[in-house]
Amino acid sequence: MGKVEWTKIIYAIVILLTIGISICACVATFKFGDTSIIITLITAIFAELGIYSATYAWKTKTINKTKILLDFINKLPDDVTTKENIIVTLISNME
């Protein structure tokens, strides 16, 4: 098994903390009956999870675009001028 990426470890920690704090907030709500601080806390935690999820998805999409492009370039014919023209066209058309 290969080395796990640092971003995946952080993502798992954020998810586990979100679940743990949400459970603790629910228990505290039932125990103390005050929901004012808990609602703010849960909102902030889920906002952080959403932002990290969006950032992770964007990073993964960008990396996969690069991998697909490099794989396609490696499968091109060995004719250098054709290969260069295709590479320039692909790079200029990337979003």
Q: Main sheet?
A: none
Radius of gyration: 23 Å
Shape: rod-shaped
Beta fraction = under 5%
H and E string: HHH
Class derived from helix and strand content: mainly alpha
- The span between the termini is 33 Å
As a percent range, the share of helical residues equals over 70%
Instruction: Write down how many β-strands occur, each being a DSSP E stretch of 2 or more residues.
Output: 0
Task: Indicate how many domains the architecture comprises.
Answer: 1
Number of helices: 3
Uncertain spans, ≥5 residues at pLDDT below 50? none
Q: On the 0-100 scale, what is the average pLDDT?
A: 79
Structure description:
This protein has 95 residues and is mostly helical. The protein has one domain (6-93). It has helices spanning 6-32, 36-74, 80-93. The two termini are 33 Å apart. The relative contact order is 0.08. The model has no long low-confidence stretch (mean pLDDT 79).
Features:
mainly alpha; 3 helices; 95 residues; single chain
